[in-house]
Amino acid sequence: RAMDVTELLDGLNPPQREAVASPLNHQLVLAGAGSGKTRVLVHRIAWLMQIEHISPSSIMAVTFTNKAAKEMRSRVEELTGISPKHLWIGTFHSLAHRLLRTHWKQANLSENFQVMDSDDQLRLIKRIVRGLNIDEEVYQPKQAQWYINAQKDEGLRPQHIQPFGDQWAQTMVTIYSAYEEACQRAGLVDFAELLFRAHELWLNNPSLLTQYQQRFRYILVDEFQDTNTIQYAWLRVLAGNAIPVMAVGDDDQSIYGWRGARIENIQQFSKDFAGAQEIKLEQNYRSTGNILKAANSVIDNNPTRLGKNLWTEGDQGEPIALYAAFNEQDEARFIVDQVESHFKNNDRTYQDMAVLYRSNAQSRVLEEAFIRAGLPYRIYGGQRFYERLEIKNAMAYLRLLQNRHDDASLERVINVPARAIGEKTVETLRQYAREHGTSLWQALEQAIRKDLLAARATTALQKFESLIDEMEVTCQSIELHEQVDHVIQTSGLIEHHMKEKGEKAQARIENLEELVNAAKTFDPDDIEAVDENGEPVDVEYASPLAAFLDQAALDAGDAQADEFEDSVQMMTLHSAKGLEFPVVFMAGLEEGLFPHKMSADDPNRLEEERRLCYVGITRAMEKLYICYAESRRMYGQENFASPSRFIREIPHDTIEEVRLKATVSKPVSQQFSVESAQEATGLKIGQQVWHAKFGEGTVLDMEGQGAQARVQVSFDFDGTKWLVAAYANLRPM
Ligand code: ATP
Ligand code: MG
């Protein structure tokens, strides 16, 4: 079913039409969220095929996820009736991969090269570091991994890097070099290498490049604001002066700066792709007036923007619901209640609803609340809490305490974190266990007693044995959550991740600390066991730990709805990019959590957090809920949090506070006001104060009222902190 011109332009506004129907030259579509950028891109592809009669195999479209690529394909087919099977559509990574598979020889790869995921990569780097006799404690393999990938993202080979006598950098380059050789020898390619190699493929093979430049007639890139240096370079070389490019993006939605994405590529595009037609889309079709107003007003606080307007013809819609939860459990309960009532009353399906959060670790409490309520949910683009690597490691230690003969758990953690128990040693244990029909733990004991191994290995095993024994003894006399805490500390897991770099390591630590919280709130009575006939039974557990492990296994077992089941989508704000949902819950809008504590003091990172908030708000079509908890167990302890500054940046007249509690509280505008806080604390902004522990500082901000009044103080030596005035005992100077 082919479409004609009018049909293709149907359902597009004038600037969208201009973008879709313009002649084949460079285009930069720069526009805010929900203005139809992705829609334009899809229609443009259809236009190219249908009206310009360009063959699908001559069109390349770059999307942000493979899932988005799949969706785009089916939208194009829907529009044109032409099979888009031959379209070159995918992520930068998948397109690069495809090229390298075809041209492995020119890329100087072996025919059967293997793509390594990030775990494989780390294992290889570890082996290399050891092989080079480099001190693993000083030069962490994880850091080396981060370093290598960052160099590749910038397009740098070891020989391009000049460490200038910097010992650390020098060693990193040495590792990078050895890693590169090892990969080349073994035919291994990591993710960053895919892009890098594809770029070099162009540079080193001019005739091949020409061939592709003749083949492709048009290139389109969605989410352009999040391209990194090497991706942009690859694109630029390919396009050359030959292929027109349409780049589509929104500087306000650049949220991967921490992973090397460069907003500046937007401005660079206009320079490099001369004469690019710039198209602005300003009408938003996704969200109600209130939601849009909130989003616009939040992002307006970012000083460095290209600047755009966004308006809607749609209704103002319902107000944004703001819920001040008592704590994180209350927050989760509230969300569950709202989901249930939307489902029952407002004829919403579950998949109409999404729960978005800043940090991976937040999902645990939400998941549990959903499981308890029997609501179907899916974690989009991520793993469920109990499936995450660091959690599995911690659970393996706990299981070992419970049962030394749990071989799988022992194998998992015997050398995590690294304690010089090598694969050879473990293999010896396995063999002994097989031959003597024992568990690995028993094999380990025998190996020590009978001196079956070299002295070094025996010592390492002895250490491990006494570590586990010590843990068990200590854990016998402390409470469950203290046990979990003890285990993640003494096992070295926390320290292990602490030494790693980057956001991911931080998330792993947060998850581990979240496990302590899980233990703290765990109630064995919540376990619902059934017998063979499905009748509920009371189970007697040998210990709270045994019950906890059981519960975790159940949670991990069957919680997640399968892909096609109608289910609520849970995801981090990062993975929500480009998506839309009628009902959106944003959870955990508290200072320290969102904006994240790691970003609060750095203006650039704070701007990126704010863009993330903008992304979150603009995912909502009809109803947005914003939740924060007055107190939250986070990073292993109970914290009183103040509401995120982003809440204050939302106009009061778009917000309606939800009050479920019987208590009457003042409206949010007054709760947050500086005046009420000044009244309560007797302090003024700008005033010098003295704190018994932190010393001298300046009052930057305050909020709340009465006993809840909080003061933000910038201490001369201790950084900026929010303090509850009633406890802080700040003395005016
Ligand atoms: P984001 O920045 O979040 O990626 P976007 O700019 O890509 O957003 P789209 O996802 O393409 O926006 O469009 C947002 C919504 O508005 C979609 O549901 C889309 O179908 C709808 N839409 C876009 N343009 C129009 C239009 N001219 N008429 C009606 N609906 C439209
Ligand atoms: Mg989009």
Automatic annotation (TrEMBL):
One term under GO cellular component: cytosol
Domain named UvrD-like helicase ATP-binding: residues: 10-288
GO molecular function: 3'-5' DNA helicase activity; ATP binding; ATP hydrolysis activity; DNA binding
Keywords from the UniProt entry: ATP-binding, DNA-binding, Helicase, Hydrolase, Isomerase, Nucleotide-binding
Listed SUPFAM superfamilies: P-loop containing nucleoside triphosphate hydrolases
Pfam families cross-referenced by the UniProt entry: PcrA_UvrD_tudor, UvrD-helicase, UvrD_C
Catalytic reaction(s) noted: ATP + H2O = ADP + phosphate + H(+); Couples ATP hydrolysis with the unwinding of duplex DNA by translocating in the 3'-5' direction
Gene Ontology biological process terms from the UniProt entry: recombinational repair
Binding site for ATP: 31-38
EC number(s) recorded for this UniProt protein: 5.6.2.4
Entry similarity comment: Belongs to the helicase family. UvrD subfamily.
PANTHER family: ATP-DEPENDENT DNA HELICASE SRS2 (PTHR11070:SF2), UVRD / RECB / PCRA DNA HELICASE FAMILY MEMBER (PTHR11070)
NCBIfam families membership: PRK11773.1
Protein name per its UniProtKB record: DNA 3'-5' helicase
